[in-house]
Amino acid sequence: MQTKESKQKETFLTRLRRSFLHVNSDKQTDSRIRQTYQSLSHWHDFQIKLFWEGIVVGIFSGLVISFFRWALTQAEMLRILLYDYLTGRPDWYTGAWFAVLFAVAYVLYVLTKHEPMAGGSGIPQVKGVILGLMRFNWFRILYVKLAGGVIGLGAGLSLGREGPSIQLGAVTAQGVSRFLGRSRMEERYLITSGASAGLATAFNAPLAGVIFSLEEIHRNFSAVVLLPAMTAALTATFISRLIFGRDTIFSFYGLPPMPLDHHMVFALLTALIAGVAGVVFNKGLLNIHRFYDLKIFGGSLYRKILFAILCAGVLGFVLPPVLGGGNLLVNRLAVTTLPLDLLILLLVGKFVFTLVSYGTGVPGGFFLPMLVLGALTGSICAHFLVAFGLILPPHTPNVIIIAMAAFFAASVRSPITGTVLICEMTGSFSHLMTLAMASALAYVVAELLGGQPIYEALLLNQLKNRRDEPEEETIDSRTVIEVPVGSGSQLENKRISEISWPPHVLLVDVKRGDRQIIPDGQVLLRPGDYLYILADEKSVPDLMKLGEELQPRHDVRHRRK
Predict the structure, then answer these.
(1) Most CB atoms within 10 A, among 397, 407, 435, 494?
(2) Between residues 359 and 431, which one has the greater pLDDT?
(3) Contact partners, residue 29, CB within 8 Å, separation at least 6
């Protein structure tokens, strides 16, 4: 006689097999079914397994991104030395350098054409893969991102290393998953862990890496996501600190506490201005394609890249601080008071050149340039506050970090990440409450102004520009995803039979705390439940949206037409 557990197992396997293949089964399908069943039915063991796999992902991601970070540092140092050397030399030296820039533009053109998914920051692509809207060729993205990122930033394009680091961590994690033969459900967790390790290594900020991967990439704070993300971030940070030391990215040493009296009003005023600036920055990024649509470029990718590279060549002689990521500029602002006219020039120059650089589509992000723009905005605000005697000059760095956190929160719409990130990057948690208030205010400002979360908006644009793929259903397109039941969502306090599920999906498991509930039509779903659903990847955005709070928002998780 079969036990209750064996009957449940048989039912589970039958339902999975029927959903993976319409007619017949094969060894590959049975292997996927067994793997999925083992994960869901032995949840405790699965979480421990992810813990160890997070360490493996952290090791490989930490090594890859540490190499990327080291190569970028060498390339930027070489660029600074080169422009110092060219200054005062005969004109033909400069002419020879610009000839080299033509070749650099061509190399970036070839790399970008070879693997378009490696273009830009890479964060929208990682979100697209997590949502099941895109696929990675992990190895090709790995070497294209490494080469393109080093060449582009080394040539002076105003791009950041953090977005590429997140994508490099994600594709490294996918490579580990493929090598170990993991299921697609498990692979999503590992990709999130790799993204966490990417930001942690790039900024020497493990907490921010974990929070960003949960708040922005996966949008899920379940323990099964949190555990491998933490171990990957901490392991990758340990490796990077062995190589680069424990120094913070920004040199804000000995920050004085911000007085909690009238100074708080000025801090929130700075956050308000930085929030508006973040929305303007997003508008610029989302509309820079209109500039590159001009007839002068003729729709040529090479002309776009060449234009940006030549602009970098000119700026290298007339305004070198706006080149590259800009962390050296932020460190300068932390210890030096620059004239107002220079601050405005740097802000305008960095803003325009970042748009020009990112609009080319070459590998490289805007994460760090965005923080630099926030720092410049804060420096200008601090200049006026000091000039009118509203704050003391020693509090100028405080205003700068407040503006950085607010600018980030308004642009990315991830206030928790922005708050923790700036704390870790400056090495001071004494400003945690002030930064949190500033980030929250900037978030509200962005919402009121109708700004879009930048990474989600960029993902939407990429999906619109992609050619339609064949709609045929394959085994590889099937995956098991985790959908949390959010408070106020369409799933809350509804029975399974009452929910309008997307077509071709199968609810295979419900977890409530430590309990595993067999999903039948009479099960009442509650906030905090986690659903495990077998579905075609095209249905993933709709399923994720079911579990989210019912509120109007600019989100990529809607049905693709």
Answers:
(1) 407
(2) 359
(3) 17, 20, 21, 475
